[in-house]
Write a structure and sequence with these properties.
heteropentamer, A alpha/beta (410), B mainly alpha (292), C mainly alpha (280), D alpha+beta (368), B: 292 residues, mainly alpha, 2 strands, D: 368 residues, alpha+beta, Rossmann fold, 2 domains, 33% strand, elongated, binds adenosine-5'-triphosphate, binds magnesium ion
Chain lengths: 410, 292, 280, 368, 368
């Protein structure tokens, strides 16, 4: 790579260039990063940050390509969990444990948000944006149908039924990219099965034999009729637009979508929607107060030539100062403690972030938690299940087959 | 002096030869080699697995779905692009078409100059089940029963994509055929007219036999193109729903860059190569035997 | 009587034919018009009724699309397109000329190599190509697109131009030799200028390919500032935030140059194809 | 039966160009009509109107007794041979010849008979299974003729059928077509821009210029008695020499071309000039090269003699062409093969007065 | 200065085909040499070797005193005019002519002078700004000549420069090239397959067949005294008639072609046959069409007379060709224009014995 050619500044200090890769090429995020970078550069005259970005979908593929080159970015975005773990296993991620443990860096984060970056007791990354999955609902439509905000699974199904009877589409759902369905299943799995899911999700174990997996799908099947038509043919954001247009009553969204909803919706609508947590499943074995959703974060490349500078940048990027700017400008909350006070940002965002911070533990997104190959089969089968083309047993059988195959290659 | 000239001609060919060798042939040969390994894109680690990638392919459900989709695509494209394209070309070149033929020709060709990404996005909108053009039109015409979630229904989605390609490429093939038709001396038609041939007979007995070669070439272009298929699917469905629109190109891409199985992807590449190569050889054979 | 019938059938046939042409043209054009109409709407207008005309044309969609990076993609596409098309046409012409004029047996090998190159699909080479590009340090540079584009379009260019040069009057070159040209001078001052139509056809074919190429651009470029339109457009469609109408505007902007380029060149295009043709 | 009648036929092309103007002619059954004229004079257009390939703008065309203006080509009972033969390249010779018959749904064995018969006449029976592209020019020509013959048409139309052949073959095919006409005994209409072909083949020739018929006549008549300067210049090779001169009356009426070249005339021709009031006027004189000879020592006074410098001498074997210039006009004379004059010499030429053609200078029409 | 010397020149193509075999000839300065022969005989190959466009396989080529076998075309001081003119279509007439001079880096004003001068000679000074494609065939031809002239070459090479022109223009350009040669006073080497061009233009002609020179001679000599059957048949139009006959001796030595056709000979020729032992042997007889005439009532016995049926009669204006068949061979006779014999008649022909050409049947070489 040509970027690390040392330049000599007036003071005689060597200027180091580090490459930085994120996944927000669109505005206003890109400008935000540009400002962050220039602030950092101003504070650290010996470091130059070469910033690049790739948007969400291609990022998943491109990051692998990029890490294969000799020119891998020194600091890059990633989703914790299996998505990152494979890079860790391949030595592509720098071990931050030592740095984290000194100067109280580790302690500056809300631990539930840092924990996802831990593998085998070593810390590999830092959270940049916290996230979790919640339901949003249209108060007016609920009123129309005389429906209540549900807190249990059975209530939830009743609510759906009522809405349906009032000729209102109960749930907006866009599952053309099937990561959307994985969020439902991930949540239901956790709530029904409990700790066993971690055994299943670990590619080295890959044991999906717990009957809860089938049970979870059976429960899921119960809600399928309440989705809008053609869920497999529309995109998540399209569904969200429909929901915002009053074409459906509820939607399962990520907390990070809230700022987006806020920014485009009318004032009228802003007062007209509320949020609630995924209903608890009463006979489920899982801890019902866990929350689905993992933070997103950044890591340092395992092959970086400038670990010191890269770590410094990472620390700044995920730290409190940037966190505040991030919260104010983008409405995103990072994993650092006490970044903003209530009132500084929109209440919905603040409140919902508190839900995350208060959750006992985060449950990783199913799609980034699972090994890619297993995930692919799982998601495809889930789409099929929604179309009634397969049964829960068959789905899990296929998943198990793939998981076994992956385990054997491990 | 003569000898010097010979060398000169080599110089003319050299840049092209080097570029093609290095960036087309070497990768392809290397690809054969890779197909014998298990490897991923982000490490240099390679595990020799012999032919097991191939063994796996032949037991792989998605591979067969992909292959089937490619074959659908090829067959339909031949019928629509070459078949209908020929009809269109003949009609446009017929006397009846008059002066507006250039206008129509350009219109029909237009979609093929637009990028597949743009066309894909465009058709994504057309097929959108809620506000898409197709369903909107169907509803307007009172054909509500015919509305579909075009890209969301597994038994329809691939055909929806294929339909889009036909829309895009009929004009392209048509142009190639028009060019061939224009090379047929007009006297042949006049002679046939005196011999008593009507329009249809002229098309069948004069035009078609005289553009046989072009028809073969365009068929091969179409078939090879069918197996090169990637962007259309990637942009429209990425292979979904549940792999029902997967084709070899996207499957290869997915295995390589999403499932981290570069070796397996290389093996798929080899199979694409074998298929396209055999089709082409077949064509050369056929056209050669036609020349005798 | 017969006269009447003859003429009426002709008119009838002509009317039917035109009807068919117009229906077909509508099928081709309507989506394009649809996209233009909807690119001038707001998102909610689009979702309420995509067939209606925009109430107030939202021209800002175009400005937004342009500012959102399309301007960069656009310039990148122009740059990559110009360089690859020029190089392909030029190197292709040289190679085709060499193949046609050379007397050595070597030229047959070259020709078969070219033919072979025509058959190979880019995906097959993708993985190794990616490694090669990376090894020689082209990854994430314009060259990572330009060079593979040239390499993969050359066979077609050579193929197209070869059949043209086969019919190129050798006397013109000999005349130039006698006039005192060297071989290279002959090529530049006589052969190339005369071959304009076929060069134009090749240029159009190559330009269409380059302007629209997706796979290589997707894999070999990582820097947003170096992306070309196809990848850029698909980038617009980020998972969570999609401004649909702006994207439509982007599609329109991204497609216009090729449409204009084609319409400007179409006469030469057909002429060149007729002179060269795609036959072996 | 297969007489043709063309009445005031006119062709105006879509772009407004009037290619044929008021073409009127009666063609008898079994005639060999040659349409001849310089490029662009409307020959092909006329032929194509007869064939039905081009619409007739106005006028009437009868084949036999039927008005065929609006009859489709296939129903006109004609056959056409094109300049480039227009053989179907994808069919064998046999199929080329059988194509029209097949379209007419004639029984297979009958087709076979007809094709083989025609092939025998043209001596191409051994080529029936070949494709056109492996045939030589002459063979293709024959196949094209064969394809016309099998249709057994009332009228044979040919558009410069020989111009793609080389000189030797052209001469050979010329006589073959002439023989074929004798043998088939049908009406032939033949288009050429080569006056030699017209002269040697036609039973009558139609000389056209700018879409207008100049003369319809037997070949030798057109040669001997051209109606105007154009026909006189067009028919005959080498071309007729033209000079300008003034009709002067001293004792005799003579024509003075220059001080040195004064042409005398026989008495009856002098009278014609006199009676028509040409004395003192300028006229155009036409002399065929074969009528300008090398002057013998003493020739009688039916000849006029003059001297001029030889500019080019062309040996033709049996004779020699001598080129010279009189009043800035190039003149060709036909001398004997063994003449001794050479390039640069001053040669003596003689012209017989009775062989002179005289044209009105204004109208360019023939006086005698 | 610009004399050429070709010594045992030979050309073997890459595929092993021997196109020119042992071509040896001395060409004087300012000669007009015409290479003539049927298609494929190696004329073009020879010319291209002289131009330097084709390698000489063996032998030596001198231009002036220099061995030029390995000299590049541009350095040979030659100019070449191609059959299809090979004008650069993207350049104006002026640029076409100036191109070679520009490459030589000659000053602009000098180029201008040369080009304008050449254009004036050829009367194309008004065309200088046009592109070739808007020119007529004859104009293109002139431009091609002009492009050659400006180079001021020692040797002018021309490969069938007239064969793309129509008959009339061909005749006209023929004389223009002849005049040009006189005017430029350089060596011309001219290739054609048309014997008329060869006869009329060449100061000497080289008749080739299958890569071998048959005869190098002045045109009229080649016509009058061909060295063999091939040359005799090739030179002259219409072609010489050939018959086979047996030399018989009764009182006189005569040649019997058939019962009805017996040809008598003058005494000295009889002696030649006798002395060379041809009596009783078969020979080939050649008679030019112009030597077969319509028999007059009483002609002296230097003529042989015979009768035959007229098959085709071709009017040529100044004369008439009569076609007939003797011993299955087609014979052409030149009758007067006003002959009364017609198709189907039995005509009387006469041949003068002194005009007969006799060839050995085995070797096909001329006996006399
Ligand atoms: N389709 C057409 N539209 C307009 N003008 C035409 C068309 N076809 C021919 N002409 C013009 O009509 C005139 C007569 O053309 P035609 O082909 O009959 O000439 P011709 O006598 O056959 O000449 P040639 O000897 O060159 O074949 C020409 O001036 C030609 O340019
Ligand atoms: N490049 C070549 N390779 C092999 N054979 C050739 C080549 N060029 C010409 N010949 C052969 O050499 C012979 C002489 O060719 P050349 O062109 O000299 O004939 P030509 O006398 O000019 O005939 P034409 O009158 O047809 O132009 C021909 O039989 C031809 O087929
Ligand atoms: Mg014509
Ligand atoms: Mg030649």
């Amino acid at each position: 790579g040509g970027n690390d050619t040392p330049e000599v500044k007036d003071e005689g200090e060597e200027v180091v260039t580090i490459k930085f890769l994120h996944r927000w090429p669109q505005e206003p995020y890109n400008t935000f990063f540009e400002e962050v970078v220039s602030d950092f550069e101003a504070d650290n005259p010996n470091i130059k940050v070469d910033m690049q970005s790739i948007s969400n979908d291609p990022f998943k593929e491109k990051i692998k390509v990029v890490l294969g080159t000799d020119d891998a970015p020194d600091v890059f975005f990633t989703w914790p969990g299996e998505f990152t773990n494979r890079f860790i296993r391949a030595g592509k991620v720098y071990d931050l444990t030592e740095e984290m443990n000194s100067n109280g860096w580790k302690e500056s984060y809300v631990y539930s948000q840092l924990e996802p970056f831990v593998l085998d007791e070593k810390i590999y990354g830092a959270p940049f944006r916290v996230d979790g999955k919640i339901f949003v609902y249209n108060k007016e439509l609920f009123e129309q149908a005389g429906a209540q905000v549900p807190s249990t699974w059975d209530e939830f199904l009743t609510t759906c039924q009522k809405l349906e009877e009032a000729n209102i589409v109960p749930i907006a759902f866009g599952n053309q990219s099937p990561w959307a369905v994985s969020h439902y299943i991930g949540t239901i799995n956790q709530k029904i099965i409990g700790e066993n899911i971690y055994k299943a999700y670990d590619p080295a174990v890959g044991d999906f034999s717990d009957p809860g997996f089938v049970k979870a799908l059976e429960e899921f099947e119960k809600m399928v009729p309440y989705f809008n038509a053609n869920a497999n043919a529309i995109k998540h954001d399209e569904a969200r637009n429909n929901w915002m247009a009053g074409k459906a009553a509820m939607m399962y969204v990520e907390i990070v979508e809230i700022p987006e909803i806020e920014s485009v919706c009318t004032d009228e609508f802003r007062d007209n929607y509320g949020v609630f947590n995924f209903p608890i499943i009463e006979d489920g074995k899982g801890n019902q107060s866990y929350l689905t959703g993992y933070p997103e974060g950044f890591v340092v490349s395992g092959t970086t030539k400038h670990p010191k500078e890269a770590v410094a940048f990472l620390k700044y990027l995920t730290g409190k100062e940037v966190g505040k700017k991030e919260a104010l400008e983008l409405g995103y909350i990072n994993g650092a403690k006490n970044v903003v006070e209530k009132g500084e940002i929109a209440d919905v965002v603040y409140d919902n972030t508190q839900i995350v911070f208060e959750a006992e533990r985060m449950v990783n997104w199913l799609d980034s938690g699972l090994h890619a190959k297993v995930c692919n089969v799982y998601l495809a089968e889930l789409q099929k299940l929604m179309d009634g083309m397969t049964t829960p047993e068959e789905v899990m059988q296929k998943v198990q087959e793939k998981a076994t195959e992956v385990k054997d290659e491990f | 002096m003569k000898r010097l000239k010979q060398k000169n001609y080599l110089i003319y060919m050299l840049p092209a030869i080097i570029l093609i060798s290095v960036f087309v042939y070497i990768p392809i040969i290397q690809n054969f080699y890779y197909s014998l390994f298990r490897m991923n894109s982000y490490t240099d680690e390679m595990v020799f697995v012999g032919l097991s990638n191939y063994k796996k392919i032949f037991a792989d459900e998605i591979f067969y779905i992909s292959l089937k989709n490619n074959i659908y695509y090829a067959v339909i494209s031949i019928v629509c692009q070459v078949g209908f394209g020929t009809v269109l070309a003949i009609l446009l070149e017929s006397k009846l078409a008059g002066k507006l033929r250039v206008f129509f020709r350009n219109i029909y060709f237009l979609p093929s100059v637009i990028s597949v990404t743009a066309v894909g996005l465009l058709w994504y909108f057309i097929y959108n089940p809620n506000m898409g053009m197709l369903n909107s039109l169907l509803i307007k015409m009172g054909l509500e029963n015919f509305t579909h979630a075009w890209l969301g229904e597994p038994n329809i989605a691939i055909f929806a994509i294929i339909a889009m390609s036909q829309w895009q490429y009929v004009g392209y093939i048509m142009i190639l055929i028009i060019v061939a038709i224009q090379k047929i001396p007009i006297e042949l038609y006049e002679s046939a007219q005196i011999d008593g041939a009507n329009g249809l007979q002229k098309a069948l007995k004069i035009t078609i036999p005289n553009i046989k070669e072009t028809l073969l070439v365009t068929s091969v272009i179409t078939v090879i193109g069918s197996f090169k298929l990637f962007t259309e699917v990637y942009v429209m469905t990425s292979g979904g729903p549940y792999n029902s629109t997967q084709v070899l190109g996207t499957y290869l891409y997915n295995t390589a860059f999403m499932y981290d199985e570069m070796g397996y992807a290389a093996a798929i590449a080899v199979i694409i190569f074998v298929i396209t190569f055999s089709v082409s050889i077949l064509q050369i054979k056929i056209s050669n035997s036609g020349k005798e | 009587m017969i006269v009447m019938n003859n003429k009426t059938t002709k008119t009838l046939l002509k009317t039917l034919l035109y009807l068919f042409f117009i229906v077909l043209a509508t099928m081709v054009i309507y989506p394009l018009i649809w996209i233009i109409i909807n690119s001038l709407k707001t998102n909610s207008e689009l979702f309420t009724n995509s067939l209606a005309l925009p109430k107030n044309p939202v021209w800002s969609n175009y400005i937004k699309a342009w500012k959102l990076g399309l301007s960069t993609y656009f310039l990148n596409s122009l740059l990559v397109g110009a360089v690859s098309v020029t190089a392909t046409v030029f190197l292709g012409a040289a190679c085709a000329y060499g193949v046609v004029r050379s007397q050595s047996k070597f030229k047959d090998i070259v020709f078969y190599m070219i033919l072979g190159g025509l058959l190979l699909s880019p995906q097959v080479a993708l993985i190794s190509l990616y490694k090669i590009i990376d090894k020689i340090g082209l990854y994430n540079t314009y060259w990572a697109m330009i060079i593979p584009y040239i390499a993969f379009k050359l066979p077609f260019a050579v193929f197209l131009m070869r059949s043209y040069f086969l019919g190129f009057p050798k006397e013109l070159e000999e005349s130039a030799y006698i006039d005192g040209c060297s071989s290279i001078q002959t090529f530049f001052r006589i052969v190339l200028p005369i071959s304009k139509p076929i060069l134009a056809s090749t240029a159009i074919m190559t330009a269409i390919f380059v302007w629209n190429e997706f796979l290589f651009a997707l894999v070999f470029i990582e820097d947003k500032m170096k992306m070309t339109i196809p990848v850029g457009l698909s980038n617009f469609r980020d998972a969570l935030v999609t401004d649909w109408t702006v994207m439509l505007a982007g599609i329109v902007i991204g497609s216009l140059p090729m449409i204009i380029f084609y319409l400007l060149m179409q006469k030469n295009f057909i002429k060149g194809l007729t002179a060269g043709g795609i036959k072996g | 039966m297969a007489n043709l009648s063309l009445k005031s036929i006119k062709k105006v092309y879509a772009n407004g160009f009037e290619a044929v103007k008021d073409f009127t002619m009666e063609i008898e059954d079994k005639e060999f009509i040659v349409l001849v004229g310089p490029s662009g004079c409307g020959k092909t257009t006329t032929l194509r109107m007869i064939a039905g390939l081009e619409e007739i703008t106005s006028g009437e065309l009868y084949i036999g007794d039927n008005l065929v203006n609006d009859v489709a080509p296939k129903n006109r009972d004609i056959a056409m041979v094109f300049q480039n033969y227009a053989l179907y390249p994808h069919m064998t010779v046999y199929d080329n010849m059988a194509f029209g018959l097949k379209l007419k749904k004639i029984p297979k064995d009958e087709i076979d008979k007809k094709v083989k018969n025609a092939a025998k006449i043209l001596e191409i029976d051994n080529l029936l299974n070949r494709k056109p592209k492996v045939l030589s020019g002459g063979q293709r020509q024959r196949v094209a003729l064969g394809r016309a013959i099998v249709r057994n048409p009332k009228v044979f139309l040919m558009d410069e059928p020989l111009s793609n052949l080389d000189a030797k073959l052209r001469v050979q095919m010329r006589t073959e077509i002439a023989k074929l006409h004798k043998r088939l005994n049908t009406t032939f209409i033949y288009v050429t821009h080569d006056q030699t072909e017209a002269m040697t083949m036609g039973s009558r020739i139609v000389i056209m210029k700018d879409g207008v018929i100049q003369q319809i006549d037997k070949p030798q008549n057109a040669y001997d008695n051209p109606v105007n300067v154009f026909v006189a210049g067009f028919i005959g090779s080498p071309q007729m020499n033209f000079l300008e001169g003034k009709v002067e009356k001293n004792n005799d009426i003579r024509i003075k071309v220059s001080e040195k070249v004064i042409l005398s005339l026989p008495e009856e021709k002098q009278n014609i000039l006199n009676e028509n009031g040409y004395v003192g006027k300028d006229v155009i004189i036409g002399i065929r090269p074969s009528h300008i000879k090398e002057a013998k020592e003493n020739c009688d006074n039916s000849y006029s003699v003059f001297e001029s410098t030889v500019e080019v001498k062309e040996l033709m074997g049996a004779e020699t062409y001598i080129y010279t210039t009189i009043n800035d006009r190039q003149i060709i004379a036909k001398f004997k093969a063994n003449t001794e004059v050479d390039f640069g010499d001053t040669a003596k030429f003689m012209v017989k007065g009775s062989k002179l053609h005289i044209f009105d200078k204004e109208t360019e029409l023939t006086i005698f």
